[in-house]
């Protein structure tokens, strides 16, 4: 093996461990196979059963969260195909740019709507009745469109250069100030997209849990379930997104310090694997946020698996939607 050959493979976006990348591809295929029908069925309920556009805006946030996840899922088969062929990304420049745009826009939207939903529920539980900016804004359904539009500029730095193949802040004689600025902007987008929502989510979760534990009235079983659910949201977010963030940080350190190609390769492979892990969020989001209401779960089962609920009546029209999501809105 010639000197720097492994490092050159990384720069050319070729997988140095093809067997491991085929395993990554298999994991993505499993995630896609399980998450696509789940998200599609929940999306169907929001549109045709609950008519989310006529309901409270919290359900519009949930709809957008599921929509962002399902759009992100469509990227997984392409990434899996690349990994199977021993490529860390498509060699076709147009496909690569389109993939980066879809991945960062929809991943960012998923995290953004998850964060907004958590803030909304924080005010509902911890400060009920208090006037706040979010409560004023959410009276207008157009706020969801604004969130999508605000996310668009964040995709620009990710597509200016080859982000996915870990070339940020690569030491080179051809380095320029513009390249350094672009690299820094790209990394800032990646880290702030996860770290800031995580801090907000931890803050909201801690205060919601403390508030619920201080309640002296109400069904204790429901309160315990509520504490479990809000804690689960934070745990799932941490499990899906923090590992890839740490791996990215380690990878940047190895690049900036010009570490041995062996360590740069291991860091790049670990980062790719933990990015695959982050896609599990698309599978867990609908389970946590949409099925936190027993009535929504009953509605889902009665629609798709009616044999399970033979002797139970479940409200199916939009007029009962507020009752269906009452537990999900006020407790989580």
Automatic annotation (TrEMBL):
**Organism superkingdom:** Eukaryota
Where does this protein reside within or beyond the cell?
A: Membrane
Write down the PROSITE patterns for this protein, in alphabetical order.
G_PROTEIN_RECEP_F1_1, G_PROTEIN_RECEP_F1_2
Q: Which family does it belong to?
A: Belongs to the G-protein coupled receptor 1 family.
What molecular functions are annotated in GO for this chain? G protein-coupled receptor activity
In terms of InterPro entries, this protein maps to:
GPCR_Rhodpsn, GPCR_Rhodpsn_7TM, HCARs
Cited Pfam families: 7tm_1 (PF00001)
Question: What sections of the sequence does the record tag as coiled-coil?
Answer: none
PANTHER family in the cross-refs:
12-(S)-HYDROXY-5,8,10,14-EICOSATETRAENOIC ACID RECEPTOR, HYDROXYCARBOXYLIC ACID RECEPTOR 2
Q: What is this protein called?
A: G-protein coupled receptors family 1 profile domain-containing protein
Q: Can you cite an annotated GO cellular component?
A: membrane
Q: Topology versus the membrane, per the UniProt entry?
A: Multi-pass membrane protein
Q: Could you tell me the keywords of this UniProt record? A: G-protein coupled receptor, Membrane, Receptor, Transducer, Transmembrane, Transmembrane helix
Q: Membrane-spanning regions, if any? A: 23-48, 60-80, 100-123, 143-160, 188-206, 227-253, 273-292
- G-protein coupled receptors family 1 profile domain ranges (all copies): 38-289
Which coarse location class applies to the principal site listed for this UniProt protein? membrane
């Amino acid at each position: 093996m010639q000197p720097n050959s492994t490092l050159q493979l990384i720069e050319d976006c070729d997988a140095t461990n093809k067997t491991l990348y085929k395993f990554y591809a298999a994991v993505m295929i499993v995630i896609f196979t399980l998450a696509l029908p789940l998200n599609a069925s929940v999306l169907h309920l929001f549109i045709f059963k609950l008519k989310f556009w006529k309901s409270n805006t919290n359900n519009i946030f949930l709809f957008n969260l599921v929509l962002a996840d399902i759009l992100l899922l469509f990227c997984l088969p392409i990434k899996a195909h690349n990994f199977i062929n021993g490529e860390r990304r498509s060699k076709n420049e147009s496909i690569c740019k389109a993939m980066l745009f879809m991945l960062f826009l929809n991943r960012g939207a998923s995290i953004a709507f998850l964060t907004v939903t958590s803030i909304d529920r924080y005010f509902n539980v911890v400060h009920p009745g208090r006037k706040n900016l979010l409560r004023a804004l959410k009276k207008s359904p157009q706020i969801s469109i604004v969130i999508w539009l605000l996310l668009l500029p964040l995709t620009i730095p990710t597509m200016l250069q080859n982000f996915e193949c870990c070339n940020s802040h690569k030491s080179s004689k051809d380095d320029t100030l513009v390249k350094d600025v672009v690299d820094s902007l790209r990394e800032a987008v990646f880290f702030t997209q996860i770290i800031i929502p995580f801090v907000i989510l931890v803050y909201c979760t801690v205060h919601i849990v403390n508030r619920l534990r201080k309640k002296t009235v109400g069904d204790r079983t429901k309160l315990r379930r509520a504490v479990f659910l809000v804690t689960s949201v934070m745990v799932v977010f941490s499990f899906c997104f923090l590992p890839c963030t740490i791996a990215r940080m380690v990878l940047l350190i190895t690049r900036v310090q010009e570490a041995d190609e062996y360590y740069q390769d291991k860091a790049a492979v670990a980062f790719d694997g933990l990015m695959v892990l982050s896609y599990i969020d698309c599978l867990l989001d609908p389970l946590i946020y949409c099925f936190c209401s027993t009535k929504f779960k009953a509605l889902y089962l009665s629609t798709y698996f009616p044999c399970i609920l033979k002797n139970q009546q479940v409200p199916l029209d939009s007029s009962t939607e507020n009752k269906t999501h009452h537990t999900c809105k006020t407790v989580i």
